[in-house]
Amino acid sequence: MSMLKQFIVYRTDRTDGKAEEIRKATRPLHAEYMKQFHGRVHFGGPMQNKDGVSIGGMMVIDAHDEAEVWEMINNDPFEKAELSSKIEVYQFRWQTKRPATLPPL
């Protein structure tokens, strides 16, 4: 089995006025879905504008490769409900305050 890598998932909400309705309807399903990744998601949460309104989300997650990250994203209830207008995935080389649980660089 290959070593896990870290990835940043950066998600921007759709801007047609339906995002909050979709988020509210699917948040419990999203939260339940994410439980299976406990121990693999280092941190994450909603991004907010200056008024405190959610405009997307981000997380840092362990995965074997980018394809595995996209599989997780595509099966997320948020994305099945088409919450996002844009999703970006980047491999992340964690250096500052690197968790001791990750292999050395």
TrEMBL record:
Residues 10-93 form the YCII-related domain. It holds the Pfam family YCII. SUPFAM superfamilies: Dimeric alpha+beta barrel. InterPro entries: Dimeric_a/b-barrel, Sec-metab_biosynth-assoc, YCII. Belongs to the YciI family. This is YCII-related domain-containing protein. It comes from Advenella faeciporci.
